[in-house]
Design a protein that fits this description.
This protein has 623 residues and is α/β, with parallel strands linked by helices. It has 21 helices and 12 strands.
């Protein structure tokens, strides 16, 4: 496996405050990624148009009732008034029906589209390397596929179509106003044009401030998540007060960011309300002068037409006010959308050559032509001139070349910072190197599909992570189809049968969040059994016994021996008792391979690094 792009390792998740992409550009990209949001949109728009046109029936009915049913005849024409009211009522019922159908379609379209968006974002997060994921707090990552998507959902389910409906209503109201009186229609627009120009500037300010709101919310969720995960450490060091102050500051930052949005938001509402009142007053004054001929213009404006026009002004001003409100909500939604797109824009620095999974069919999409699967049988591991450096840091692996025969047990030792764990992550492709290659079973690691790689190569980290379920539930992550007998046999074959029998509920024992109902050693035992059930051909143990007491270490060593039997095993050894059992020991020092041999050979080197480590370990153990 080789790569020529070291910057891939320094990818940072995007979509923060610095993103200056325009609102329309963000919406276009978002819709391109969620095509379901536009499915059948023309039917929805047609229903919206019918619902909007129906609202014109009220001013038209008022004008006809006044002019033809009350004012014009000597005696009010009750029959005409009743007929006009019945027709208007029927049209309003039809309008309401169209409105209900429109909203039902809209809700379904929005949620269908956003399910796809959530899936894509969640999948992409898992395609990022552990290093890239580490550039942002876990809680903040969660907020991008939950609260940020929710803001988009709420807007698309209501605000988006309301903007369309309100725009149609403004157009229709304008057309009808022009039919009644072009001069009065021009008067209304003259009152609103300055407001609309000011609103353009105000919306830019709201957009920038909502972007900060979404960022602050993400940091708040990240801080809360970190506090819950690290609760034991906070209490142990007596710093719960300091942590509480930090989270209060996060909450204050969210509040302050929201307050900063309220200022331009209040200004926009004030402008729309002022324009509404001014336009209504001006229409009444100008309309009265036109109707009486005081302006010297013969327009033949009746009382009914003037009253109808005032209704039309309300029909015009209502969508302007609501449109301004929806635009404000749109800025919040776009800020959330931008953060979700920031996830998808972050390069997937560890990509699956087998292609992405279609969320609907479960099939692979666009697999790379040179993608391969691992060959059957035992697997060897070859590392050639492997180099790696962390972002903005020095090189930590300097041209490592290692050959690990199939079914052999290799132990890698060295002082802290020598590159042991980095090598483990590169061999299991949790990260990609800056240069060099890793081959497993003769195949380049970056060409092996994830389905094949994760099935045949398994890593057990320093602290075995357990999910909040039972022991059996965690074992099933190793082999989803495993029966209870298979799980129990796995425990017995690793020498863990007596430990399992001592548990009152056996395999049904709940392990708690992150496995905290078990001891560190017990968590690691379950992790080893899970790896055993997965039945890999290559297993990497990253200091799997470093966090347990000596008594548990003996049990773990027995389990590791059972797990390693017949498999290619790479052990990152913190305790040299593990290294003593390996076929070959590799000694790393500051990213270089400096010694290689059996335990007996390396201990026999009086000035060797391993011999020195072993003497220190023996002295510490005897004291």
């Amino acid at each position: 496996m080789s790569t020529t792009a070291p910057e891939k390792s320094s990818s940072r998740i995007g979509g923060e405050e610095s993103n200056d992409e325009g609102t329309l550009a963000t919406v276009r990209r978002g819709l391109a990624l969620t095509p379901a949001a536009l499915k059948g949109i023309w039917i929805t728009l047609a229903l919206a148009a019918l619902a909007t046109v129906g609202k014109v029936v009220v001013p038209v009915a008022v004008q006809n009732v006044l002019d033809r049913g009350i004012i014009a005849p000597e005696v009010p024409d009750v029959s005409f008034v009743v007929k006009a009211c019945i027709i208007a009522g029927a049209v309003l019922v039809l309008t309401a029906s169209c409105n209900v159908l429109m909203n039902r379609r809209l809700f379904r379209m929005a949620e269908t589209a956003l399910v796809t968006l959530r899936k894509r974002a969640f999948r992409h997060i898992h395609d990022l390397s552990l290093l890239t994921q580490g550039t942002e707090q876990r809680g903040a990552l969660v907020s991008r596929v939950t609260s940020d998507v929710d803001t988009v959902s709420q807007f698309m389910s209501f605000g988006g179509i309301m903007l369309v409906v309100m725009s149609l209503q403004v157009v229709i109201a304008t057309v009808v106003m022009v039919i009644y009186s072009p001069l009065l229609a021009l008067t209304v627009w003259i009152c609103y044009i300055p407001v609309l120009l000011l609103m353009t500037m105000v919306q830019r300010l709201i957009r920038a401030r909502y972007q900060r709101v979404r960022t602050m919310v993400g940091r708040l969720l990240g801080g809360v998540s970190e506090s819950l995960v690290g609760a034991a450490t906070l209490r142990a060091y007596g710093i719960t007060g300091a942590n509480r102050d930090r989270n209060r500051q996060h909450i204050k930052n969210v509040r302050d960011a929201q307050f900063r949005v309220l200022k331009p938001q209040s200004l926009s509402f004030m402008l729309s309300e002022t324009a509404d009142g001014v336009a209504t007053a001006v229409v009444i004054v100008v309309g009265v002068f036109l109707g009486t001929g005081a302006l010297g213009i013969d327009v033949n404006l009746t009382a009914g037409q003037l009253v109808a026009f005032i209704f039309l002004v309300s029909l015009f001003s209502q969508p302007v006010r609501m449109g301004i409100e929806m635009l404000t909500e749109a800025q919040n939604a776009v800020a959330g959308w931008r953060r979700v797109l920031g996830i998808l824009d972050t390069p997937a620095d560890v990509t699956d050559p087998g292609g992405a999974i279609d969320p609907k069919t479960g099939e692979r999409l666009d697999p790379e032509p040179d993608a391969v699967t691992l060959p059957e049988g035992p697997l060897n591991v070859s590392v050639h001139d492997l180099r790696y450096s962390y972002p903005d840091g020095p090189e930590v692996l300097h041209g490592l070349t290692i050959e690990i025969p199939a079914t052999s047990h290799i132990a890698i030792v060295g002082e802290t910072g020598s590159g042991k764990t980095t090598l483990a992550k590169l061999v299991t492709r949790m990260m990609d190197p800056v240069s060099g290659s890793v081959l497993i079973g003769g195949q380049r690691l970056d060409r092996i599909t994830f389905d094949s790689l994760r099935l045949r190569v398994v890593m057990v980290p320093q602290e075995g992570f357990l999910f909040d379920t039972t022991i059996a539930g965690n074992l099933l992550y190793g082999k989803p189809s495993a029966t209870e007998d298979e799980m129990r046999n796995a425990m017995v074959e690793l020498g863990l049968g007596d430990w399992l029998d001592r548990l009152e509920r056996g395999l049904a024992t709940p392990v708690g969040q992150r496995g905290e109902s078990l001891s560190a050693g017990e968590r690691q035992l379950v992790s080893l059994a899970r790896a055993y059930l997965a039945d890999p051909d290559v297993i990497v143990l990253d200091e799997a016994t470093s966090a347990v007491d000596p008594a548990a270490d003996v049990r773990l060593q027995q389990a590791i021996e059972g797990l390693a039997r017949g498999r290619t095993t790479i052990t990152i050894a913190h305790r040299l008792s593990t290294a003593e059992r390996a076929d070959t020991i590799l000694v790393l020092d500051q990213g270089h391979l400096v010694e290689q041999g059996t335990h007996a050979e390396l201990v026999g080197l009086p000035d060797g690094i391993y011999a020195g480590l072993h003497r220190s370990w023996v002295a510490h153990r005897t004291t």
